[in-house]
Write a structure and sequence with these properties.
The chain is mostly helical and about 190 residues long. Helices cover about 80% and strands about 0% of the residues. It contains seven helices and no strands. Helix 5 (about 90-110) runs parallel beside helix 7.
């Protein structure tokens, strides 16, 4: 049920005679002020009793922040960061090879058809294995393995990936040419 909106005059007419018009008893203000002062004194006593909580909470906050700060600064750098610290030239080489491999993988995925789907899927799986091998080589390098041998193996890993992609892309191109040649001979 919605209340009807009254204008202010109608409201006062409707509530006439219901207002409390009595005057407070003599000394009301003094009694009120006395109670207020007593209450403020009690609050002040409670505040004095609980003042030890404030320094304790500040100390706990500082300790928590310090602990979190230590955790942040004690985080070990990632494997990639550690590899770059050990062999800075790896970063540039890896960037070059990764971009080349990604470009070739995209070409491979774009060439995928029902006829060569198995070949493409097998190649992508082999590339994943090579990526896992590369990550293991990074861990070996960080753990103190022979850096020259490991760095050489890392570069070889990328070369294998690139050679694999080129070979598969050539095979796909040959399959297309054979299908095209077969279709031309059938139509003649």
């Amino acid at each position: 049920m919605m209340m009807k909106k009254d204008n202010i005059e109608q409201l006062f007419e409707r509530l006439q005679g219901q207002f409390d018009l009595e005057e407070p008893k003599t000394g009301h203000r003094d009694r009120f002020m006395e109670k207020l002062q007593q209450h403020q004194g009690t609050v002040a006593l409670h505040r004095k009793k609980s003042t030890w909580w404030r320094p304790l909470s500040i100390a706990a906050s500082v300790a928590l922040i310090a602990l979190l700060g230590l955790q942040v600064f004690n985080i070990r750098p990632s494997i990639k960061q550690q590899v770059v610290q050990i062999a800075p030239e790896v970063s540039n080489t890896e960037f070059y090879f990764v971009s080349l491999v990604e470009e070739q993988v995209q070409l491979l995925k774009n060439q995928k058809t029902p006829e060569n789907a198995q070949l493409v899927d097998d190649t992508l799986m082999q590339l994943e294995h090579l990526e896992n091998d590369y990550k293991q080589l990074e861990r070996d390098l960080v753990n103190g393995g022979d850096s020259k041998i490991i760095l050489n193996a890392m570069i070889t890993n990328f070369q294998i990936r690139i050679d694999l992609l080129k070979e598969v892309l050539n095979s796909i191109e040959n399959i297309k040419n054979l299908n095209s040649y077969s279709n031309e001979n059938i139509t003649i």
